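Build the 3D complex.
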Amino acid sequence: MTGPTAPRKVAVALSGGVDSAVAAARLVEKGLEVAGMTLRLRAKPDEPPVPGPEAIARAGSVSSHLDIPFHVLDAQEAFQRDVIDYFVAEYAAGRTPNPCVRCNRFIRFGLLMERALALGADALATGHYARIRRIDEGYQLLRGCDANKDQSYFLHALTQEQLARARFPLGRLTKVEVRRLARRYALPVELHAESQDVCFLLDGDYRTFLAQHAPETLRPGPIRDASGRLLGEHHGLAAYTIGQRKGLNISAAEPLYVLALRPEENAVIVGTANELGRDQCSVEDMHYVSGEARQQPFRAEAQIRYRARPAPVRVNPMSGQRVEVHFDQPQRDITPGQFLVLYQGDVVLGGGTICEAQNSVL
Amino acid sequence: MINLRKRRIYLDHSATTPVDPDVVEAMAPYWNAVFGNSESSHAFGREAASALGRARQTVATTLDCHLSEIVFTGSGTEADNLALRGATWAARQAGHGNHIVSTPIEHHAVGHTLDQLRDLFGFEVDRVPVDGHGLVDPDDVAAALRPDTILVSVIMANNEIGTVQPMAQIGQICREHGVLFHTDAVQAPGRLSLRPDDMHIDLLALSAHKFYGPKGVGLLYVRRDTPLVPAISGGGHERGRRPGTVNVAGAVGLATALRLAEERRLGKDTGLHALRDRLIEGILERVPDSRLTGHPIHRLSHHASFVFLGIEGESIVQALDLEGIAASSGAACAEGEPEPSFVLKALGLEPAWGIGSLRLTLGRANDEAGVDRVLDILPEIIQRLREER
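Done.
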């Protein structure tokens, strides 16, 4: 493994799924002392708990199967503060949040890592498809070898300190290999269940969640075109995302797309396909994995969503933690609130929050 | 899967114990060689009934009581339920009083049953306070008694803090006032004298798995002529007091384990006092801001319980588990903010101390090396957890 000094005791974040189970089994096989840990994220009276009881039970069965200790740690308070409140506030501000990035930074590799170290572990492993490489200057974060499963996007906000204590035993494996290993280890997990996108959303529907927890984000308002002409009514900014075409309920000669959300006037701005592309955006709270902010412009590949194709860009560092990103080709769905993650090849340089998309030449 | 596992140390004997090999052996014939229903009138039934009779005799000899005073149940919790429901319902039937006296540090088997008797059945329940060591003052019990008091229930030795109550004095008061005296004595076998007559006890509950017997079998001692309504209804087993086919293997296991526990307690076996004191003194000496909970003298011989300032007990238990050491904590973190257990609250411990509780309970397999390993590791763990906060 390409990690720092070999750990003796490793805590593994178990979700009850196949990936984290195989990650744990690999570490056990290496002869490390391994302990399974699962975070209780939400357990409110009138809501389905997160994770669900079956997931916790499976994580427990995996631990028994591997003959390792298993503990469920409470993270409800931090999860509410660092993930749910953020999620709701971003939608309220007309942006499209990514709670998983926040969760990895503050909960998994924040609270859980700190708890694990305090309990006596030397490192925290997860079932993410990503790699860590030790170099002279510190640690690099790399894409997982399985291009289809690569999860480095979600991990771009990790710091050097976090990477020094993190382990990704699946980084060099493909999903197919992971399933094969799960069968070989006879792990008590479902081999073909895919993990949900956002764990606290029932059926993956964020609108139901917002309707329940932040009804103010679903206030109806006007749909306008770029010139300000009223075209219809929307069901609340949170129900729309940049580039969205469906669900506008406006009849027009040409298909219309969401161009922008304007929280200050609670308006959705729409336009035709040729109005959609943007080739520039500013990014705030830029985090560099290396820990050192760049001062000079540089070229990189940018991913504007988890599954987006990496796009070649030029990055101009500005004052503070802001950068301007210029795309070689216009992008149709640069979405404020989403994370823009910069890569050079497989190496994650870092990333930040998209705050505004513009066009360089109008 | 192969896992490299270091030597594990079990320090949670108040939760449960392994079954003594002699007990396993004694139970062995009653799974399939002798399997009859003890109520059947044929040879198979008679074999089972005779085994059950011998088990009952063993228990009666150990408790120095009469055969008819022993009721086998499915657990210690069930024995407590039978005692409390049975005695109060019988009093209700006879038109006697309506008032129960207990303590704030009862096991849930008693505490929650009393709550239900109050909330659903209209009984009045008063709980006399305990002092900072968890001791009940017999004078408080005397003062709480009313003409309509029907039952006093006091846990003989508390599971969480190990404090042993002045049973004989409380029993004396109950006897003088003609009030039934029940005790949950689940933690007592092998550690304390159990003879109900010596303590004027009318109802006494035990659970086999706490003293190297099998799980799933308990016992209620019921003083002769104590009116008792069966808590569950069914057939006439156990003189109609506990319907349900009797677990003969379990009863034999309980009886054997109880006899062995009493023999060891009275024999040359010096018990676990010395190990316990090594643990208590070592921890209080090596861990800053630590306190013993429960009574320093009137406590179970295998029981060491502590609180540590400013940390959560559950975290200590988890960290010890990662080292292969099994312990427990009274404090339960139900949702978000951890709270001291109800027992520690009753002692008046402030929350900064009360959430950091740790219980280490020794057993036959423990030795000095194991205790010293805890003394080596625990200070480090506590320090690390305190730094994390």
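The interface with chain A takes residues 1-6, 315, 318-319, 321-323, 333, 335-336, 381, 384-385, 387-388 of chain B (CB under 8 Å).
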